[in-house]
Write a structure and sequence with these properties.
Strand order of the largest sheet: 1-2-3
Number of helices: 5
Helix content: 40-55%
Radius of gyration: 16 Å
Number of strands: 3
Shape: globular
Structural class: alpha+beta
Distance between the termini: 39 Å
Order of helices and strands: HHEEHHEH
Length: 119
């Protein structure tokens, strides 16, 4: 991916704070953008948005939760769906259009998998 296209992606980094998902941005050999989406741990989302005060007790709980989550993933694999899609021709897109495309991929992810998270 060219440096110019990487710079366009900086505008999209804030989407991880707006939506409770983990977004993994990558590139194909042709330079197209790959977008990996996974449901985030709710503690991660709340911590990033400063909704949980950083007390010693909360830090200990957060550390414990993250360790248990990683242990579960190592033993059983991902517990939430991981969806990867490709956005083509980002050379000709504005940074806002790329962010809107990523937001649409997040919306598609929730349409497809929301029944597994919020039931």
């Amino acid at each position: 991916m060219s440096q110019e296209n990487r710079d366009k992606l900086l505008y999209s980094y804030g989407l991880g704070e707006l939506y409770p998902v983990d977004i993994y941005l990558g590139s194909t050999p042709r330079g197209d953008l790959t977008v990996g989406i996974k449901q985030a741990n709710l503690w991660d989302y709340l911590t990033i948005n400063n909704e949980i005060p950083m007390t010693q007790e909360n830090i200990a709980a957060y550390t414990f939760i993250k360790r248990m989550e990683k242990t579960h993933e190592n033993m059983y694999g991902l517990s939430v769906p991981y969806d990867v899609s490709v956005i083509k021709n980002i050379d000709y897109m504005y940074q806002e259009d790329i962010a809107y495309s990523i937001r649409d991929k997040i919306a598609d992810y929730y349409k497809k998998y929301a029944h597994k998270f919020y039931n």
